[in-house]
Amino acid sequence: MNRSDVLIVGAGPTGLVLALWLSKLGIRVRILDKASTPGTTSRALAVQARTLELYRQLDLSQTVVQNGHKVPAVNLWVKGEPVARLPFEDIGKDLTPYSFLEIFPQDQHERLLIERLEQLGVVVERDTELTGFTEHGGSITAQLLLPDGQEHTCQTCYLAGCDGARSTVRKALDIGFPGGTYQQVFYVADVEASGPALNGELHADLDEADFLAVFPLAGEGRARLIGTVRDERAEQAETLRFEDVSSRAIEHLKIQVHKVNWFSTYRVHHRVADTFRFGRAFLLGDAAHVHSPAGGQGMNTGIGDAINLAWKLAAVLNGAANDKLLDSYEVERMAFARRLVATTDRVFNFVSAEGAMADLIRTRVAPFLLPKMVSFELAREYLFRTVSQITLNYRGMPLSEGHAGHVFGGDRLPWAHDRETDNFNSLTSLNWQVHVYGDTSEEMLAWCAEHHLALHIFDWHPTHEAAGLARNGFYLLRPDSYVAVADLSADPKVIERYFRDHGIKPFLW
To answer: Which InterPro entries does the UniProt record give (predicted)?
Structure first.
C-alpha cells in the first residue's frame, strides 16, 4: 500500500469513475476520502446522454437506466399555467441511444461505482486525509492522516485531486480559483408530494418572485424541489427550514407536499482553476471548476474529466505514450469548463435575476417566445444536443485532426443505426479503433491487422449519410470514443503518422 500508480483524493463520482476506468486498464490505484461514509443524500441527480454513452465502456449504462428514472420532457410554467413542453424522446431518438434525461441520485450512483470498484479489488480508504505532498524526480511522496490518527507516507506516480470545491490538492499547489459567488440563496428539498407536476417529467416555474424546478425521482410521488430563497430570509439561510421558504411557486405548480425527506440551502459558485495540471498532479471535477446547476451539467462534467484523463494516464503508465500526452487533458477539459461556466451563467441569471425588467422578461416575453422556439425542430434539437453534452468536442485541439463528411477530428462519433447494425456497439471497447463506412483498402486491412488495431467496416447505408459520416474514408477513434482523425482516404500512413507525431503506440489493453 506504500506505492501506487495513481493516488486519487476524493471518492465522489469523479474520483470513483477515474479509479474504475484505470483499474480496468490494469493501473494500480489508491483512492481515499476524508469522509467516514459515502454520501447519503441525493445531491446531483442528472445523468446526461453523453455520460451514459461513455458508461457503456464501463458496463454501467444499463444498470443506471434500469435503476433510475427516465425524464421524457421538460415543462415551463408561468403564473400557474404550463406554457411550453420540450420532449426529449422525440428530439434525440436519432441522435443517441439515450434520448432522455436520466435521474439517478448521487448516493445511489456512488454506491454502484463503489460496488464495481470493489469487484476489481479496490476499496475506498475512508477517514483518510491528504495532509501534504511533494514531487521529486519521477514520483510524488504524499503524507496521509489515517483513521487511527497516525501519519502515513506513500509514493505514487501521479496524484489526482477529485476532492471538491475546497480541494486540498488545489490549495497545496497554490493554484488560483478565480470567479465568484452569486448573491442568491437556493434551497433543495427531497419530498413526497402530489399534483400535476408530479407526472414523472421535469417542471420549472418562471415566477416574478420565486424560481422553482421539480425533478422527478424514482417512485410514485417523489421529487426534488430546487428553488430560490429571497428577501430577508436569505440572510438566515443556514437556519432555514422547509416551512420557512416561500410557498408561492409551489402553489403555482399546484404541488401538495406531504413529507420532506431532506432539506438544505446553498449558494451557487462559478469558478475555474487557473490550471488543471501542475507537474504530476491533476485537478478534476469541482476541484477544477464549479458552476451553476442549470442544466444538470456538474457531475457529468466531472465524470467527463475522469474519462478524459484516465486513458491518457494509462497509456503513459503502460509505456504506450510519452508524458506529453497528459498536457492535452488541461487543453481539452479547461476549454469546455470555461464555456460551460459562461453558458450556465446566462441561464442562471435568466431564472434568478430580480427587478421589474427581469420579471417582465420571465413572465411576459419568455412565455410568448419559448413555445414558438420549441415548435421549431432545429431549436429543439439544439437544446437537446447542448444539455445532453453530445455536442461537446475537442475540435482544433492538439489530438484532433482532419474531417470527413460533417465529422471533424475531436468530435463525438455520430450515432448511426438501423435494424441490423449499430455503430456504437464497438464502443464498449477501451482500445483505439478504426471505423470505415463503405469500403477500404487492402493496405488499411493489413496495417490494422499487423498493429492489432481493431478495424470495424460497416456496409454503406443511408443512415450513415444522414449522421454526417463520409463514405469510404476512415475515423480513428480514441479510447474515450472521440474522433482522433477523420480522413477521406483509405491510407494507413495517415494513422501511422498521427501515432508517430503524438508519441503514441496503437495497443491493446
So the answer is: FAD-bd, FAD/NAD-bd_sf, RIFMO-like
